[in-house]
Design brief:
By secondary structure, this protein is an all-alpha fold. It contains four helices and no strands.
Length: 59
């Protein structure tokens, strides 16, 4: 696992966390396109895409 994967896994977990304060809009806007693609791929792979979408709508 490389550093980008670890960063994105941590980001995914923070986005899904009950405490919305674990993730900031700035952290999301700083993502490169490739990082967004990995984030969405991991969410689909782990079957949490709907939870991720719900978390984004709540921000």
């Amino acid at each position: 696992m490389d550093m980008m994967d670890e960063k994105i896994i941590t980001l995914l977990l923070d986005c899904l966390h009950q405490d919305a304060g674990r993730i900031s809009a700035g952290r999301l806007t700083a993502l490169a396109l490739a990082e967004w693609q990995v984030l969405l791929f991991l969410a689909r792979e782990q079957q949490v895409s709907a939870l991720l979408a719900q978390a984004f709508r709540g921000r």
